[in-house]
Design a protein that fits this description.
This protein is mostly helical and 135 residues long. It has one domain (11-130): Up-down Bundle (Four Helix Bundle (Hemerythrin (Met), subunit A)). It contains four helices and no strands. The longest helix has 32 residues, at 99-130. The chain is elongated. It starts with 11 loop residues before the first helix and ends in a 5-residue tail after the last helix.
Length: 135
């Protein structure tokens, strides 16, 4: 997947973190295309755990600072994503890497990029632009 301007929310720190996620997503997709998804899944899950701590902390701090009215809903979505990543990690630890876990991670990442970032995170940028707020 290529980065598109439409993914930008207008907050450089957040947009930069989203671009990092897309790079990792593409690395994972490439590995899957080359039948190496199994080798890449543990690395990708570790990245996601670290990424969610940093990125969600930044994003939620920003939303809190600007009094974003949908903060609580956004936090729930973040918590669900973290839960999914942790469940996948537990599956890998308990049962090893399978085609099913690889497919699930692939689908989770794609859905997150297309739906959460492109729809939910965009609302943060729109809210800030409407109120002429700076990050």
């Amino acid at each position: 997947m290529a980065w598109r301007e439409s993914y930008e929310i207008g907050v450089e720190e957040i947009d930069c973190q989203h671009r990092q996620l897309l790079v990792k997503l593409n690395e994972f997709f490439d590995a899957c295309s080359n039948q190496q998804g199994r080798e890449k899944i543990e690395e990708t899950l570790k990245f996601l755990k670290d990424y969610t701590i940093e990125h969600f902390g930044s994003e939620e701090g920003l939303m809190n600072g600007i009094h974003f009215p949908e903060l609580a809903d956004h936090q729930k979505e973040h918590a669900e994503f973290v839960k999914t990543v942790l469940e996948l990690e537990e599956q890998v630890k308990a049962k090893g890497v399978s085609v099913l876990t690889t497919i699930k991670l692939n689908r989770t990442l794609t859905d997150w990029l297309l739906n959460h970032i492109n729809k939910c995170d965009r609302l943060i940028g729109e809210y800030m632009a409407q109120r002429k707020l700076q990050a």
